[in-house]
Amino acid sequence: MTKFVSLKDAIAENVFDGDVIALEGFTHLIPYAAGHEIIRQQKKDLTLIRMTPDLIYDQLIGMGCVKKMIFSWGGNPGVGSLRRFRDAYENGWPRPLEIEEHSHAAMANAYEAGAAGLPCAIFRGYLGAGLAEVNPNIRSIECPFTGEKLAAVPSIRPDVTVIHAQKANRNGDVLIEGIVGVQKEAVLAAKRAIVTVEEIVDNFDDVHPNACVLPSWTLKAVVQVRGGAHPSYAKGYYDRDNAFYKAWDPIASERESFQSWMQDNVLNVGPDAFASRVAFTNAEQ
Amino acid sequence: MTKFVSLKDAIAENVFDGDVIALEGFTHLIPYAAGHEIIRQQKKDLTLIRMTPDLIYDQLIGMGCVKKMIFSWGGNPGVGSLRRFRDAYENGWPRPLEIEEHSHAAMANAYEAGAAGLPCAIFRGYLGAGLAEVNPNIRSIECPFTGEKLAAVPSIRPDVTVIHAQKANRNGDVLIEGIVGVQKEAVLAAKRAIVTVEEIVDNFDDVHPNACVLPSWTLKAVVQVRGGAHPSYAKGYYDRDNAFYKAWDPIASERESFQSWMQDNVLNVGPDAFASRVAFTNAEQ
Amino acid sequence: MNYTPTEMMTVAAARAIRNDDVCFVGIGMPSAACNLARLTHAPDVTLIYESGTIGTKPDVLPLSIGDGELCDTAVTTVAVPEMFRYWLQGGRISVGFLGAAQLDKFGNLNTTVVGGDYHHPKVRLPGGGGAPEIATSCGEIFIVMKQSKRGFVENIDFMTSLGHGKTGKEREALGVKTKGPSRLTTDLCIMETDPDTREFVVTSIHPGVTREQIRDNTGWAVRFAEQVVETPAPNEIELGALRALNERTARAHAGQ
Amino acid sequence: MNYTPTEMMTVAAARAIRNDDVCFVGIGMPSAACNLARLTHAPDVTLIYESGTIGTKPDVLPLSIGDGELCDTAVTTVAVPEMFRYWLQGGRISVGFLGAAQLDKFGNLNTTVVGGDYHHPKVRLPGGGGAPEIATSCGEIFIVMKQSKRGFVENIDFMTSLGHGKTGKEREALGVKTKGPSRLTTDLCIMETDPDTREFVVTSIHPGVTREQIRDNTGWAVRFAEQVVETPAPNEIELGALRALNERTARAHAGQ
User: Fold this and answer.
1) pLDDT, tens digit, 9 for 90 and up, residues C44-76
2) Could you tell me which residues are beta bridge partners of residue A165?
3) Hey, what's the torsion of the CAs at A67, A69, A74, A76, to 10 degrees?
4) Residue D154 belongs to what domain range?
């Protein structure tokens, strides 16, 4: 059953050195606060999975938490490269980084297959694509009816998935709405799941019957962290901080400026700092 | 682009003798009015697909429209057998009926694969099940990563899918809510799709962003038929007519009583008859 | 308190459901048993119906697998492909309920055809629906079924869904990791699966029922456990909740 | 009216979009071109972003592929696995837009690594994202890209997404049924795909641009069609709509 716990306890009790971990979010609802807590707890040798690793993975990599990254697009959206990712991959700083690279379609299908309890996903993909030649986890099957060759990738089954969502109710059920990405699949594919939320409400009586709701018994921990997706956003709560995404590029470009920023903004503060980083759009917030 | 047309034209322009056709609905939102129009237009040699063929397929079969049925559970829910289906299959009346039988999981996966443009679906299923020995369309593949043997079935790609839904907006987009079954998949898997709806509203501004909406350009025809799911139901409009499901059993048990009922209630009337068969729960109806 | 054999069966089936179970519920007896459990000793049990309704808490029993009441009271309602992929095949269900037209001592079930062969049956039944994958994807399977020689047979006519196979060893042979049928509740007794042979063995007999009656209503040579207990009769709370549920249901359905 | 080369490129790219197209839109130039088309000659065009937003009509251009504006103005927003399975792989997209760090004359694209080999690159780029499957699943591919010798190369360093392959014949060889890159719009000209060789051929040159300039900014031997026309300059309606869109966008993003 879901436990409402502190962010510190949620990470300490569910994330372990060497884990395969997905902090998902497709531009929207990226779990920054939870990522910072992982950094503060100095988790090591993590394998990070995400379709679109952005600044939070740059930060985890730059702080030496990461052994390997599995991804399909690793950049700062609309801005450019992930400087810390490149420094780790190209120069081995602060430690060498392995990568496993897929296409979005492959990752989306692999999460879907993970949620569905299958060992692999099949799809029509990677036709003529270079990745199929360099990634041994891209294979194929033949359709037993038409003979068509279809791409196959292993399903994604993280040890832990961490997501940020809009709301939990008192029972610990979680609502995600708007751009829902692969979060439901990432949670259901994982052995353990942690969710940070903007708000805890009494019930979901006013929610659409087919909304994306994760029942409490599919989750290990639910934590309220207001603003916990900043500089990403939470539909209905606050907008994306595009200025921060742009500002990150010079911060991350040098090792020293990166470390100093992390010291001031991650290591020396706690999750409560997030609420003050966003401008809540909802009057009632 | 979607055309708002009459039910007569929607069926005449999109359903042809010999077509493979899915009238889907999982207890909820079964497109009875559209099925009756197919009977009135005396379509022939149809292959009917549905996970849970119920009375409307019993009626199509009993009226001689059907050559073959692909299904996973063919009964009168909570009541018993489909008498006309059994008469056709066991005795060849009014014409012999072929069947292709699957499990629910297989059909659900096959619709999903059809919507996804794949030639086949794979899943963990039919383990030790007798159907795998009698249905040549149940095959297998081996996972290229784990070696696990997984079941494979051909994807479902109907010529036409017909569904009933709650609402269309003026643009012809369609909203389905509540128990949504496999309707979205059945529509996206088909070459052509027809939707009957309870109501046409100006816009969907008040609809949840992740509600099940089929954009107008995925549909061939949208038709308003109030009560068009009776004796099935439309959440928010009217309840399931359980009494009718029970009453159907004696009607369908004899060929004569069946034919007489069809004459009076289908052949001699039009889609307008449906509105009077239901008790609308919404005051505004 | 007086009670009917059906009430005894429903109550006995309900008692086996645990508060933290996630149940894949079929219509009829399983639905009554699961909701009775929810209304008595297992208030937090999660009930899932294959129509896509997750965590549903119906006030009255549904007549069909997709009644509006199931959606109205659910935590969420998902599409049917998702139900079979993420929730059933995903291994999230602890207990699946099944019934059948025919059952053998290894819990293999037939709901497909009776008599003749598959292609030329004497009686064509509705078919398996979700059963083939429910049987292998759920943590364990509880069967609830009225006992009779016609239904409890030595050899079923068609293997709609796998129990423990023709020899009791087929699950392992096929690499199926779930437990399969572990409990059979009837109107006469409770049978449990022998951990070695995987045959059903009578472990509890309902009050007033004789071993003779059980034998007379079973098409295979019935085995009784060394220790057979008497099933506790339905208590006041159980009967009260069941009857109130049935009354609410009758009233609601009559009103339609 | 004066206009910049970027405005010319955006307007030229927008003009190719038809009112009944279903476009899979990438961020940046494709997004500007698609929305400009929607605001001018193609009001009913369906725009889909890979974040799951279908039929979106943003009032301002999104900065990221998943800005809230896209969801707020969409007909519906679906999960990302559904986007890639039902909508892209399902064959529902008529036009996909792609850009790249490197492009060759057959429309093969590289957004993965530059220099060295894949495992030891000189520069590690963000990667392909949706491109490998966009390239083969959409009805046809429009490429929009500023022209330069660094980007328009004889041989790309990595085949992130298939155009017409290394020889122009790979799509048929692989059984790919879609058209692939059919149009390349740059800040200097429009190139279209030769139906026989599948090479890009310049068919239209923007006003004031010389053939020399195009050659100087292309890493392969540029081919010009027999009939090369001058691209009509952006008209008042096009420029007005584009500038208003850009102004709204700048205002909205500054306000954040």
Assistant:
1) 999 999 999 999 999 999 988 888 899 999 999
2) A197
3) -50
4) 5-187+234-253
Are the CB atoms for D90 and B116 separated by under 8 Å?
Answer: yes
Distance CA B152, CA B109 (A): 9
- CA D90/CA D48 separation, integer angstroms: 14
Question: Which residues in chain D have Cβ-Cβ distances shorter than 8 Å to B217?
Answer: 20, 22, 46
Q: Which residues of chain B neighbour D67 with C-beta distances below 8 Å?
A: none
Kindly state whether B132 is in contact with chain A, defined as any CB-CB distance less than 8 angstroms: no
Judge: B213–D75 Cβ closer than 8 Å, yes or no: yes
Among C80, C123, C167, pick the best mutation site for testing chain B contact (most B Cβ within 10 A): C80
Domains: count for chain D: 1
Task: Tell me if C125 and B81 make a contact (CB, 8 A cut-off).
Answer: yes
D206 in a structural domain: no
Q: Is residue D17 part of a domain?
A: yes
Alpha carbon of C197: minimum distance to chain B alpha carbons (Å): 18
C78: domain CATH number?
3.40.1080.10
A32-40 vs A7-14: helix crossing angle, rounded to 10 = 70
pLDDT digits (tens, 9 = 90+) for D5-29: 999 999 999 999 999 999 999 888 9
Residues of D recognised as catalytic: 50
Give A188 to chain C, closest Cα distance, Å: 7
| SS3 category, D23 | strand
Q: Is B117 on the interface with A (CB under 8 A)?
A: yes
On chain A, the residues whose CB falls within 8 A of the CB of C136 are: none
Q: In this structure, which CATH number among 3.40.1080.10, 3.30.70.20, 1.10.10.10, 3.40.800.20 belongs to the domain B3-43+157-277?
A: 3.40.1080.10
B125 vs C53, C65, C133: nearest CB: C133
C70 touches chain B (CB under 8 A): yes
DSSP string, chain C: ----HHHHHHHHHHHT--TT-EEEEPTTHHHHHHHHHHHTT-TT-EEEETTTEES---SS--SSTT-HHHHHTSSEE--HHHIIIIIIITT--SEEEE--SEE-TT--EE-SEEEE-SSSEEEE----TTHHHHHHHSSEEEEE----TTTB-SS-SS-SB-SSTTTS-HHHHHT--S--EEEEE-SSEEEEE-TTT--EEEEEE-TT--HHHHHHT-SS--EEEEEEEEPPPP-HHHHHHHHHHHHHHHHHHHT-
CA dist A229 → A162, B40, D193, D254 (Å): 12, 57, 44, 20
Q: Which of B85, B103, B242 sits opposite C128 (nearest CB)?
A: B103
Stated pTM of the model: 0.97
Q: What is the pLDDT of residue C67?
A: 87
Helix (H) or strand (E) holding B114: helix B104-115
Q: Are A79 and A150 in contact (CB under 8 A)?
A: no
Position B44 confidence tier, pLDDT thresholds 50, 70, 90: very high
User: Among partner residues B118, B137, B177, which is closest to A210 by beta-carbon distance?
Assistant: B177
pLDDT in tens, D177-233: 999 999 999 999 999 999 999 999 999 999 999 999 999 999 999 999 999 999 999
Contact B240, B178 (CB under 8 A): no
Query: What are the structure tokens assigned to C227, written together?
Result: 């220790």
How confident is the model at residue B285, as a pLDDT? 42
Look at A215 and C76 and tell me if their CB atoms are within 8 Å. yes
Burial (Cβ within 10 Å: 0-12, 13-18, ≥19) of residue C203: buried
Mean local confidence (pLDDT), B239-259: 95
Q: Minimal Cα distance from B208: which residue of D?
A: D76
Q: Which amino acid is at D34?
A: C
B215: nearest CB among D55, D85, D91: D55
pLDDT at position D255:
56
Any idea how long chain D is? 256
